[in-house]
UniProtKB/TrEMBL annotation:
Gene3D superfamilies with a match to the protein in the record: Dihydrodipicolinate Reductase, domain 2 (3.30.360.10), NAD(P)-binding Rossmann-like Domain (3.40.50.720)
Occurrences of domain GFO/IDH/MocA-like oxidoreductase (ranges): 137-257
Organism the protein comes from: [Clostridium] leptum DSM 753
Protein name, per record: Gfo/Idh/MocA family oxidoreductase
Gene Ontology molecular functions: nucleotide binding
Transmembrane segments: none
Domain Gfo/Idh/MocA-like oxidoreductase N-terminal: 6-124
Taxonomic lineage: Bacteria, Bacillati, Bacillota, Clostridia, Eubacteriales
Domain of life of the native organism: Bacteria
InterPro entries assigned: Gfo/Idh/MocA-like_OxRdtase_N, Gfo/Idh/MocA_oxidoreduct, GFO_IDH_MocA-like_dom, NAD(P)-bd_dom_sf
Amino acid sequence: MGMKLRLGIVGLGLIWENIHMPILMDMKEQFEIKAFCVHNEKKIPLWQQRLPGAAAYTDYRRMVQDISVDAVVVTTPLEMNAEVTLAALEAGKDVFCEKPMAVHVDVADRIMEMEKQTGKTVYVLEQFLYNPQLPVMKKIIDGKQLGEFVSFERTTHYLMDSSNEGYGQTQWRRKSDFPLGHIYDGGVHEIALLNELFGMPEEMYAVGQSFREEMGKYDHILTMFHYPSGATGVFSHSAFLACSKNYFYIRFTEGSLYVYGDKLVLEHKNGGTEELNTAEGDTYRAMWMELARIVSGHGKLPFTAQDAKNCVRVLDAVEQSIESDQCAPVK
């Protein structure tokens, strides 16, 4: 990168403070924080100390107009992601947006249309796409090293409560204004990963269960994916059912593949087994390093606004299926 990209930050919550800020503060040759927006005016002095020299705002609409800002980092409560992204694009800024980019397909379409109109880019901060295991898995699947893809089983259960570094106590999660519940927050990572590995499903069947009044409509969602090839997949997600034995199995006509920590284990139909070491690493840091390269004109963006929209399309079908108790097409 020749010149530093000058950033304005909207949303100084936990994900910014715990994840993005420490990384960007270590990347001062690539990024410079020129402005920030905080809803609570009383917190301005604190953030002026932590981000010295950055202009302070309490209205993101004013901040995105700041001529010293090249790009806006959107780390707001997820139901605000789209409106801030649209305002930044309209102001002629590139956007680094936390997932999900939007919670409705029509709004995702508006964002993509605004990208075209302005010539600016939305870089969705989806760190799962920067896991070093992913290209290895893609090579096995696309190269048919274990034959044709038949099915997958993916389980991600954990307990989202006050012990989760404060995430489970945030009011926008406890009094959510977005569909389904936590699958639209933490679970959207998994949808992005599944779409990248297997492509878009053509229809879904899903059931949802609720065990508590807060934290969204459903605490557990079990979904079956149907693909155009005839392959299927089962995805079980919960932010209520604590489990340390989550798993990911992928089955093929000539064997199977499963993820075991930083290893990928291949089991061949003839009985042979092999392990591939794939260090997991810091996916957030890897993401920002790669985004810096892409912004400077090197490399291809692995997760585009279209990919982000596809995640919304899948989750929209999940919601339709739960509500109708029928298979729903992915539109």
